[in-house]
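Subject: sequence -> structure tokens, single chain

Hey, anyone have a minute? Need the predicted structure for the following. Not urgent.
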Amino acid sequence: MTILRTVLASLALVFVLGSGGGRAEEGRATQPLTIVSAEGSHDFQVEFAADDKARARGLMFRKRMAPDHGMLFDFGRAQPVAMWMKNTFIPLDMLFIASDGRVVQIHRNARPHDLTPIRAMIPVRAVLELKGGITAELGIRAGDRVRHPLFKAPD
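Reply:
Had a minute. Here:
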């Protein structure tokens, strides 16, 4: 896989694959996801992007998103990941997540339409995109845990 393909596949924001949960504002299927932080547990409904097409589309062209909604990008295995904000109209917080569900890095308030790659500092399994500013508001930090069937429980 070329670097360009990796960047393009990992950039962006989604469609939905997945089961369970409710419906996003625009009628897309969602799944429950919880972030456990020192401040408590925070529940979200997320769309699930697990293939190249869904990851490439991501949250592009969305004009709004509820504070308890987001998108979870699954890359299948831990790997270098870069995201961007092409055609994305709302600020986003990006949580880079290890295979065990640990948040290893947060990029807060990514700027709409910015083409600058936002890179994970270490290989990650997934990226969770939430409404910009919500991680600061809820006290979510690196080291917090994400509960979702994608992540195996820590030993």
